[in-house]
Write a structure and sequence with these properties.
With 95 residues, the chain is mainly β. The chain has 1 helix and 5 strands. β2 and β3 form a beta hairpin. The radius of gyration is 12 Å and the shape is globular.
Length: 95
């Protein structure tokens, strides 16, 4: 389960990600394009082309979690950055 207090960093994979990818495919993107260790205690956030769905990859104590979020009334605009990765600070009190 996601324990937000243990998460150190949140990384956004800017641009549209292929949402046919599952845990292994997204972990490969983290390793090759973001140049990060997918097993670190961080959240890796991916967005689809329409910017209304998110996938969040998280590794915690030997388990890998993949969260899928559908944003019905909201579109994300900060994934359009030219850089392939963006690090943001951890957001407190997220439920």
């Amino acid at each position: 389960m996601l324990n937000i207090d243990k998460v150190k960093d949140v990384y956004l994979a800017c641009g549209a990600s292929d949402f046919r990818k599952s845990i292994d495919g997204l972990a490969l993107i983290v390793e090759t394009q973001l140049k990060k260790d997918s097993y670190q205690n961080a959240l890796f956030v991916f967005c689809n082309k329409a910017m209304n769905r998110l996938k969040v990859l998280h590794f915690d104590e030997g388990n890998i979690f993949l969260f899928f979020l559908i944003l019905y009334q909201l579109k994300i605009s900060y994934f359009v950055n030219n850089d392939i990765k963006t690090k943001i600070s951890k957001i407190k009190n997220v439920y």
